[in-house]
């Protein structure tokens, strides 16, 4: 029987999409990526896409005959249904460490720099000042937490959901917000190392863009 490939609705530059793309890659799940342009044509705002994700944001994943939204709900579903390789540490303390880092990115940085916020600011300068402030503050928090939790990866020596959140957010911080991450040595070390790993090389926004 032919296998149904998962469908990932995503945008090449979207950090939340990259989290899911990386999880699919690590777990070896075949999928097709369909681009939703959230920058030039605002395809996320169409009624057609609203039927897929009521929040009118990417990503959304169609898998196992269900449509899932919210990147962390999606990756948790993948963890629950395809547990190998595990992207969550085994012990409660390390799980908590991972979730601390995930929350800093998912709740404390990403929503406060999302491009969807721009229309709510009177000027681009005000939007930029706001997004850079919260991104930089989040990076400082990550640095402090990572100094306690990191080994080869964000939490010890196992790649986890924290790494899947860190890389796309730091990529945005450097590329979109032109922030200097050299003042965050642990963030910088992990980011450079992770960018050289197969999973992040093959799911990198530039690679996705080149295939569009
Ligand atoms: N909490 C959501 C956030 C989704 C989100 O903000 N996606 C951004 C791209 S990373 C988006 O679609 N922005 C377009 C908009 O807000 O109009 C998740 O983790 O999936």
Automatic annotation (TrEMBL):
Its cofactor is glutathione. One of its GO terms (cellular component) is cytoplasm. PROSITE patterns: GST_CTER, GST_NTER, PROKAR_LIPOPROTEIN. GO terms for molecular function: glutathione transferase activity; maleylacetoacetate isomerase activity. It holds the Pfam family GST_N_3. Its EC number is 5.2.1.2. Belongs to the GST superfamily. Zeta family. This is maleylacetoacetate isomerase.
